[in-house]
Design a protein that fits this description.
- This protein is of the alpha+beta class and 435 residues long.
- It has a single domain (7-424), classed as Cytochrome p450 (Orthogonal Bundle).
- The protein is 43% helix and 8% strand.
- It is built from 19 helices and 11 strands.
- It has a 6-stranded mixed beta sheet.
- A hairpin with a 2-residue loop joins strand 7 (322-324) and strand 8 (327-329).
- Helix 15 crosses helix 17 (296-306), helix 15 crosses helix 19 and helix 17 packs across helix 19.
- The protein is globular and about 60 Å long.
Length: 435
């Protein structure tokens, strides 16, 4: 079956399982014109080799100023003044500014420091499991396709792991790492993370979207003022000092705080959900990982390869018309890489749709590649190892409490994850490990 031009990248079926479409796109060629729900068209790169070369291509810039008028007409980017004030962070910068800004954050996420904080992260994860209501149950009767009494005991607790764990653990960890004090962390609203989802100017939800933006911007201003008045040794305080010393503009400072608070936690929340769904779809792998916890570091890499929370990268632009893997791409058109499609390329990963805990085919692209490789990769890896290890060890019999097809996948353009994750597990919850 031939592919449409452009290929639509939206809809519940696509978000539930985009991989059959990606398989067709890879087979047809490395570059395709695609259409997003906002009406924006872009050029999508799919294969692993092409994706890796694209992510390191010096001709492609990240700064939105490179976008042409056609892109600007429908990009559904933040309205002014928020766009100018919150969108000049690392993801939208090129060298030399990107080099300067990245240097300010790398020490805070250094692998050695993250490893030193692992015991603290473990305490947080255990506390969240301890706080899960013992009698949490869904009130709706299971559907015919959902687990029944044959598979779920009458007293098995049912809970939403997003609400009770996956949405809370990454933010608690992030606050610890960047030096966000508890009295400010307690006031952060998860709804503010929705501002990264495009909402076009004519969308009926635009007023609510702009209200969230203003609320988040006010919160960021409060965080900056607090860290200036009560400086500590955390990353937030160092960024405020860099602004006061002239290394950053006010807009760059606010944008970096925005990126940390939004992009620094929501992808980990989503990756916890995608990893758990993959494991519950493969109970033999789940059982093995529970029995052999030493496999967890390798398992996390395989789970991120199989279903990455960063489905697509953000925009890149060519400064002039150029050939991109055999396709002529006009200057200023947006170029996006599908990390999920690249990570299931059979030319790079044999039997790519299989969850293989013993896979040894080398690194995936879940954290990107090149100068924009995720600076928080070491933190994310440890968070996932701790989160999955804790949930598997302490929630015996962990399994989906609804049919797989009933899972609600988030409609985000760039990300992948479930908005809720109803699970069942056997009582009692296992005690904390004494290791």
């Amino acid at each position: 079956m031939s592919l449409p031009d452009p290929v639509p990248l939206y809809g519940p079926e696509y978000k539930r399982d985009p991989y059959p479409l990606y398989e067709r796109m890879r087979a047809a060629g490395p570059v395709h014109r695609v259409l997003f729900p906002s009406g924006v068209t872009a050029w999508l790169v799919t294969g692993h080799a092409a994706a890796q070369r694209t992510l390191a291509d010096p001709r492609l810039g990240k700064n939105h100023a490179l976008g042409n008028d056609r892109w600007r007409e429908r990009a559904s980017i933040m309205p002014e003044p928020q766009h100018s004030q919150l969108q000049v962070h690392l993801l939208h910068q090129d060298a030399p500014k990107h080099t300067v800004m990245r240097r300010l954050v790398t020490d805070a996420f250094a692998p050695r420091r993250m490893e030193e904080l692992r015991p603290r992260f473990q305490e947080m994860a255990d506390a969240l499991v301890d706080a899960m209501p013992a009698d949490a149950r869904t009130t709706a009767a299971p559907t015919a396709a959902a687990p029944t009494a044959d598979t779920m005991s009458a007293d098995a607790p049912v809970t939403d792991l997003v609400r009770c764990f996956a949405a809370r653990f990454p933010f608690q960890v992030l606050a610890e790492v960047i030096g966000l004090p508890p009295y400010l962390a307690a006031r952060f609203r998860r709804e503010w993370g929705k501002v990264v989802a495009p909402v076009g100017p004519t969308d009926p939800g635009r007023p609510a979207y702009e209200a969230l933006l203003r609320e988040l911007q006010a919160y960021i201003a409060e965080v900056v003022a607090d860290r200036r008045e009560r400086p500590g040794d955390g990353l937030l305080s160092r960024l405020v000092a860099a602004r006061d010393e002239g290394e950053l503009t006010q807009e760059e400072l606010d944008s970096m705080v925005f990126q940390l608070l939004v992009a620094g936690q929501e992808p980990v929340t989503n990756q916890i959900t995608t990893a758990l769904v993959s494991l519950m779809r493969h109970p033999e792998a789940l059982a093995r990982l529970r029995a052999e916890p030493e496999l967890m570091p390798a398992a996390v890499e395989e789970l991120m390869r199989l279903d990455s929370a960063f489905e697509l990268t953000t925009w890149r632009f060519l400064a002039e018309d150029a050939d991109l893997h055999g396709t002529r791409v006009p200057a200023g058109d947006s170029v996006i890489v599908s990390l999920c499609a690249a990570n299931r390329d059979p030319e790079r990963f044999p039997d790519p749709d299989t969850l293989d805990l013993d896979r040894a085919q080398g690194p995936h692209l879940a954290f990107g590649h090149g100068v924009h490789f995720c600076p928080g990769a070491a933190l994310a890896r440890i968070e996932l190892q701790v989160a999955l290890g804790t949930l598997l060890a302490r929630l015996p019999g962990l399994r989906l409490a609804v049919a797989d097809e009933e899972l609600d996948w988030i409609p985000a353009v760039l990300g992948r994850g479930t908005s809720a994750l109803p699970v069942a597990f056997d009582r009692p919850v296992c005690p904390r490990s004494t290791r």
